[in-house]
Amino acid sequence: MLKGVVFFRKRKAHPPTASVTPLRISSELNSPIGWQGKLDLAFAYAQEKTSLVHCQVQAPLKVQRPFYPEGNRVCHSVILHTAGGIVGGDRLALNVTLQPQAQVLITTAAAGKIYRSNGLQARQTTFLEVSAGACLEWLPQETIVFNQAIYRQDLRIELAPGATWLGWEITRLGRSARGERFLQGQWRSHTEVWQQGHPLWIDRQWLQGGEPWMDSPNGLAGCPVIASLAWLGAPISPELLEKIRLLWDTTNETSGFADGNDEAAVTRLQSGLLCRYRGNSTQVARRWLIAVWQLIRLSSSRQTACLPGVWSL
User: Fold this and answer.
1) CA neighbours within 13 Å on the CB side: how many for 28?
2) DSSP secondary structure, 58-106, as one string
3) Is the pTM higher than 0.70?
4) How far is the C-alpha of 180 from the C-alpha of 193, rounded, in Å?
5) Phi, psi of 297 (to 5 degrees)
6) 150-171, pLDDT tens digit by residue?
7) CA triplet 64, 117, 82: central angle to 5 degrees?
8) Which of 45, 123, 151, 237 lies in disulfide reach of 102, CB 3.0 to 4.6 Å?
9) Domain ranges of the chain
């Protein structure tokens, strides 16, 4: 089992620490080597429409014009990485702010690629601020971590009262289609969700490349794909929790793609929900997480989820 994975157990939030004030990402990420990409976005809701009201970018990060496949209430935004992938020494900083009542879905134009390192760590740091009554769905496409990559990602979400955040992370360790395994390198993922100075969920994952971690039942058990989905900011009913737990079986009965090594679990959090996947297929992981997202969306807002068109390209 992957370190940090919780299978049907409640995870207690850590007590508040002295340093709980979120900081914007800025000059502390500067480095003389590699890309120094920055993205600063702000969304506002007015006249029954959510709009992108501020956009400041620095290569290789870029954002497409907003899309409205669900009508003006929900703004879809697509982030691009124009360099094609991340290498050692790259530093990417993303800041996203949702003003009150805004509803935004953010995804990426393609799968992320973390290339073999030149000895330096590549790092992405993201800060998301969701104001009262706003909802952010953070749904990037999967990330492929090449063998010998050294990568760390930090994600911090600050929720105002009445705000909600749903986010997922799908990671493939090694280019499995080429027979590559993640036998050297490091992968780190650190996520924190806070509300009024109190942690709702803190999740730290760390994986050292090599057969002991890749093959151990306490690691990946030979599976190259891991995924997580979290929904925070609202309590979840026992009825909805049970429906989501049943989705794994019903989704696989419909698709038939999951094999005996694929595993999934659902945990009820203090103010939300956590789903985990460990297996061999990003398609299976994505199909299950989409089903979970659709059920949560329908239950929380009475709206059916609309898949971004970029996912079908």
Assistant:
1) 5
2) ETTEEEPPPB-TT-TTEEEEEEEETTSSB-TT-EEEEEEEE-TT-EEEE
3) yes
4) 34
5) -60, -45
6) 999 999 999 999 999 999 999 9
7) 15
8) 45
9) 27-312
